[in-house]
Amino acid sequence: MGVGRHQTTILYSWDLYEKETDILGTPFAPWPGTAGRRQTRRPKAWATKGLHREQRGLAKAPSHSTRCAPSGTLASEGRRRSPSYVEARARPATPYAGGWRSRTLGPHEIFGLETARPQAESLTLGLFFTILFVFALYIRPQEWVELLLNSPVIDFTAAGAIGFVFLEGSFNKQKFVRSPINRNLAIFWVWLAITTAATGYIGGFTSTLQTFGRVAILYYLIVLTVTNFQQLKLLLWCLILLSTFLSIEAVIQFYTGYSLVGATALERHMGDQAVAQARGIGIFSDPNDLALHVVPMLAFLLPAFHKRNLSGTVITGVLLLIPLVTGVVYTRSRGGILAMAFVVWIYLRHRVGLTFSVVGLVMLFGLLMAIPRFDTTGSGSGTAQSRLDHWAYGLEEFKQHPVFGMGWRCFTEQGYRHTAHNSFVLVLAETGLVGAMLWISFFYIAGKHIFAMQRITRGPPWLEPMSKALEGAVGGWMVAGFFLSQAYGFILYMLFAIVVATVNVLGNLGIDVSVKWTKKDLRNVFFITAGMIVIIHLMCSLLFVAAI
Asked: Which of 18, 10, 14 is nearest to 37 (CA)?
């Protein structure tokens, strides 16, 4: 069959390499001399002779504001795309009504016809056991199911996930080199153990590695097992449904006094009035911690962030928003409610712009003042003053132990009555300047990844809402974490893992949003950490004086 009887399918370079079939499933025949390896060059002139300009592979590709792989190369090589052209591939034309009809696929079809191509497996055994691991963390059957009381369910599921990750060969260098968070978390993990040993308790080195290891292992399991968008969406849906379960539990507990798993509401006395706060069991036994774990999932349910990302309609997002928002409100957690307001502000800023989003935020705060306990957020309230005391104590401990800190989990173990009620102060006091910089670097790198995603002008349809939802989720945690001591909680590192997993999914499509750790980044993290210390010191000084 002559070349003229062929029709050209325009493919972007990230769809061309590593694919054995074209966009409609037709097997590729390798160019001469390239069988059994990646396509590394354009077709020879004789292969496209006589075709139109766009059929010769010279069709202009949409411009990209992020780095993209040159034709026939991997995005991980880090070279900029030059020139801005796409590959053309000749394949047999399709018979139509007794003759031949040719058609050229557009960019929307390339990204929209994912189901027409061979798909990667959506649920592997490694991902399945990772989800079971997350299920055990949220539902906590070992604390209320009689047959499983005090059994190591979490450890068993984690071990199963690790075993299947090894058996499936999920380890891939590219999954780790695209984000410095992978390396920094390993260093942070070891540094926590070093700070414990620095207190004189040598045996604390191994116990710290084991205790925080559950959090670190969950992070790496998500990074290793989530390799395509279907797996990413499956994981997010599991987290949303588990958060919905916690929220429904909170609503039931608020009205009946008891939840389905036997937790009772916390009662606080404010003068002559008793205020009930919904809470869970285990790590969710504090209402503030329960709200902190629910708020980030709200970002993935907001209409514009939900549609084209996790669902084809906004209805599912709106329906699930109702129990999640109600559950957060019934915890009466002021930090959680502030975080929820911040997530809404992120949504409004992307939808209506900065000015109108600020107006909407002010109106939202007017509504929030009607919630019990929320109207006592001034610096002169008792809880606000106690938190300033906790922050001041943390800064004083940092002055005495600037390098190694007072030791991981030693904030309350050395006789102090409360925790820091600020995640940054907690890390600074317990792990010193090095640990605080490592912890800040997680947010810094995640932010660079997210903003790099948002600068992409052409990409999969789910990328834009996903990047904005990640911004709202991580930002919401940051607001809540400023008033809570959850620096080592698993939800934070799951969010980081989701960001890195999204980077890897895009990298597999040839879209490079990776980040390289440089001296400039180290300098920026140092100045951010120092700025945070100065800000908290000023808050402790000025707000405490203003309240006297």
From this structure: 18
Q: Of how many residues is the chain composed?
A: 548
- Return the ∠ at Cα 427 (arms to 424 and 430), rounded to 5°: 145
Question: 33: helix, coil or strand?
Answer: coil
Torsion of CA 65, 70, 72, 75, to 10 degrees: -60
The model carries a pTM of 0.77
d(CA 302, CA 513): 25
Domain count of the chain?
A: 1
Q: Provide the domain limits for residue 75.
A: 3-116
Nearest to 55 by CA among 3, 101, 20: 3
What letter represents residue 29's amino acid? A
Q: How many CA atoms lie within 13 A of 432 on its CB side?
A: 18
- Give the amino acid at 22: D
Which residue's structure tokens are 């600074």? 428
What is the number of other CB atoms lying within 10 angstroms of the CB of residue 217? 18
Check if the beta carbon of residue 489 is closer than 8 Å to that of residue 426. no
- C-alpha distances in Å from residue 443, one per residue of 195, 345, 474: 22, 19, 8
Structure tokens at 481: 């974490």
What are residue 90's DSSP bridge partners? Answer: 8
- What is the tens place of the pLDDT at every residue in 309-366? 898 889 999 999 999 999 999 998 888 888 998 999 999 888 888 777 777 777 666 6
| Structure-block tokens of residue 203 | 């045996």
Burial class (CB in 10 A: 0-12, 13-18, 19+), 188: buried
- Please choose, from the candidates 324, 346, 295, the residue with its C-alpha nearest in 3D space to the C-alpha of residue 467: 346
Question: Is there a domain that residue 155 lies in?
Answer: no
H helical segments located in 455-489: 463-481
pLDDT for 235 equals 96
Evaluate whether residue 446 is within a structural domain. no
Instruction: Let me know: does 297 contact 286? Beta carbons within 8 Å.
Output: no
Let me know if residue 158 belongs to a domain.
no
pLDDT tens-digit series, residues 30-89: 434 444 444 434 433 333 344 444 334 433 444 444 444 443 333 444 433 333 333 333
Judge whether 44 lies within some domain. Answer: yes
What crossing angle do the helices spanning 519-547 and 382-400 adopt, rounded to 10°? 130
269 bridge partner residues:
274
